[in-house]
Predict the structure.
Amino acid sequence: MLSRRAANRIRGLLDTWLPAVIREARPFAWAVSSWLGPNALVDFKYRAFRMSPREFAAAYQALGGRYAGRASDTTPAQADWILANIGPPPLKLLEIGPGNGVMAARLVATGYDVWTVDIHPSRTDRHLQGGVDSIPLPDKSVDVVVLAHVIEHVPSLTRAFLELERVARQRVLIVTPKQRFFRWTFDYHLHFFYSVDHLASHAHRGKTSGVEVDGDLCLIWAVSESA
């Protein structure tokens, strides 16, 4: 299976060096379908904003191919960055989009009280079904929110950032691809961020800082601090 670092290098080559007239051509849709599986919607980024929550979840359930077989989008270095910036336990954490539960298990083993939220059922303990734009938790109910390779999938960034601030007492940690928009992409991403500052511009208050790790953007949003 292609590693996240290798996938980022290949995407960078395609996005940077391939002429747009080729990169945006229809044959790329065939390549995307091959990667995402035969039931995938290659034009998902155009349909998603009109979908109901049930349709949205069903579109992800239909994913197959090599995309569905990947272990995790979070690289070991990105997981280390998350752990280094959470703060010492005990803290109550919320991980949104836990995937196969690898990060949640590591956080639990480190001594944190971990809850997870996803639009799908999860194998993790203390799991709630919901989305970033409607987190099923009370105001200021967790110390830190972690979402790795999730924010690029949400239909509304405005609602997502408002919800993240609502539930987090201290900070939000975000990992997301550094990626350019193209008509055809090998993923179901709806939003594309080209720098840490671009990502941070969606945080309407608090303090932000960030770095690039393994070709992706890593943002610390201290929601409890004044800008």
Summary: The CA atoms of residues 197 and 210 lie 8 Å apart. The chain has two domains: 4-68, 76-222. The mean pLDDT is 89. The beta strands are 92-96, 113-118, 127-129, 142-148, 168-177, 207-213, 216-222.
